[in-house]
Amino acid sequence: MTGTPGTAGRGPVRLPVRLLVCDDHAVVRAGLLALLASAPDVEVVGEAGSGEEALALARKAAPDVVLMDLQLGEGMDGVETTRRLRALTPAPHVLVLTTYDTDADVTRAVAAGATGYLLKAERAEDLFAAVQAAAQGRPALSPPVADRVMSRLRNPRPTLTPRERDILAHLARGLPNHAIARALYISEATVKTHLRRIYDKLGVDTRAGAVAVAKEQRLLP
Hints:
Layout: E1 2-5, E2 12-14, E3 17-22, H1 26-36, E4 42-48, H2 51-61, E5 65-68, H3 78-86, E6 93-98, H4 103-112, E7 116-119, H5 124-135, E8 140-141, H6 143-154, H7 162-172, H8 177-184, H9 188-202, H10 207-216
Parallel strand pairs: 3-4, 3-5, 5-6, 6-7, 7-8
Antiparallel strand pairs: 1-2
């Protein structure tokens, strides 16, 4: 991140990236803060244990980047927090740092406005570089996440069949399998078969994940 010009012959002065850390695990936050203390050109301006706390701190501290976990316990999750952070003025960039790398998680985070998506297994120097990239608005992806994104671009998922869309719509209403079966006049075993196909096509492994991706990709009416 480049700051104001320096004296003649010295070139621009590099200002530290103002960083806010959001993770609901106190021990994880402490580890991140200790690690970031050794990061060049990074100034941690706050730490939050919830999405609500991150929003309040961001309004006061005006960070350049928020390092955001996806799972935040009770209250807003990391995706909703990201969406609200990006709606602030000025809006910080959000760099997701999580253990989750499913297609549903990546899709939801990027759709909410995340600039980058890293896994917690990353090396310290890669995390530092990603923070600098995010501060400049440049995307930063962990290699496994980048591979998944490229694979999806090269091999687009097949579209859902009309029956799969019907089941997905009932799924979004929160209906259990037996209720979906009754509504569509099919067996519960058939519902389960369709669900497995829907999960495979959407790259998820849970009902909530299927609904989340379906909403992001506008597959629901």
